[in-house]
Amino acid sequence: MAIIDLININYCYGAGTPFEKQALRNVSLSVAPGDYIGIIGHTGSGKSTLIRHFNGLLRPNSGHVLINGKDIWAKPSLIRSIRFQIGLVFQYPETQIFEDTVAADVSYGPRNMGLSKEGIDLRVHDALQFVGLDDSYLGRNPFRLSGGEMRRVAIAGVIAMKPQALILDEPTAGLDPEGRHMILEQIERFRRESGTAVILVSHSMEDIAEHAKHVIVLDQGRIALSGTTTAIFNQAEQLVHLGLDIPQITKVLLELKKKGYPVNTGATTIDDAEQEIMHLFEKGG
Amino acid sequence: MPRDITVGQFLPGHSIMHRLDPRTKIVLTFFFIIQVFISKSAISLSFLIALLGVFIACSQVSPGKVFKGVRPMIPVIIFTAVLNIFYGSGDPVLSFSIFHITKQGLFTGFTLMVRLTALIAGCSLITYTTSLNTLAAGLEQLLSPFKRFHLKVGELSMTIAITLRFLPTLADEFDRIIDAQKARGAEFGSGNFIKRIKSYFPVILPLFMSAFRRAFELTNAIECRCYRGGEGRTKMSVLRLSKTDVGAILLFLLAFSLTIIFNVLFPFQY
Question: In chain B, what are the domain boundaries?
Answer without folding.
Answer: 16-144+239-265, 153-224
